[in-house]
Amino acid sequence: MIPRVKVFIWRAIQDGLLTSERLHRTIHQIDAQCPICATSEETASHVLFKCTIARLSCFSSQLSLRTEALSDTFIEALSAISENLDNTQYSYLCTLLWCFWKARNIILFQGQNTTPQQLLQQVMEINSWAPKGMQTPKLKRMSESTFTALDGCNTMMVDASWDQQNNTGLAFLNFDSRQKLRWTYAQYLKAQSPFHAETMGLLMAVKHAITHNIQQANQTIILTDCRNLVETLSKDSLDEIPCWHAEVHIHEIQHLLNNHPDLIEIRYVPRQVIQAAHKLANRARVDRDRFQAPVLNPFPTLD
Ligand SMILES: [Zn+2]
């Protein structure tokens, strides 16, 4: 299971999802009804198992689950329904639930509907990004076209450039949900290894995503060509970090992602997809005088 899904399920179990019913308990002015189907209170169990899209998708998924009679308490519903599932099926189910929550937020905050077919397709894609699915054939399918396929999300490309003298350039580009370039960032510094450099670059990008993109309900997808880093971040144990200098940054990234579970997603893509970030990082490494202090441009020029 990918870490964001784990955190999401944990939040749902802890009654931490901000559903209408949950908000109504603290703010009485907020209606507890489900804003989508208006047939009952919007509890976690309702959104994730019983509301229209959840019910239809659970049934038409490869698990063919019937959810209408499940308990109104999320944890009871989850244990009942997962009783006969093996680990793979359980992780599929959890990813499905996470996608219901994202679909619900997209309907409410962006007014866009998701069909069960689209949703099941998303689940398959997400499962293929999980570490076990990270085999070469799947990765090869992600070409330049991947970038244009991210319409509707903020997208960031991040890269680092490193040489044997530890000179390092970090760069990221931030595109808004209409794929317009909004920010570029570039910085010169020293890093102990290419992995260390990539980790620092990603940390900068994650921090930027949190400060600049958080007001929008849109998710930010951060693209990196460092597969090792994506795999390290998805592990629970940090025993095998390729460079120990990077450990503190890895911790910080994980901490930020856990605090903003629906906001940021990090994806591995081949280098050609993030060419623009690659060039900018090279420039920051070579032109150290200009990039000694971080350069964050709201209206950037790339050459
Ligand atoms: Zn509903």
From TrEMBL:
GO molecular function, one term: nucleic acid binding
Superkingdom of origin: Eukaryota
Domain Reverse transcriptase zinc-binding: 2-55
SUPFAM superfamilies in alphabetical order: Ribonuclease H-like
Protein name: Ribonuclease H-like superfamily protein
Residue ranges of domain RNase H type-1 in the record: 158-284
UniProt xrefs under InterPro entries: RNase_H-like_dom_plant, RNaseH-like_sf, RNaseH_domain, RNaseH_sf, RVT-Znf
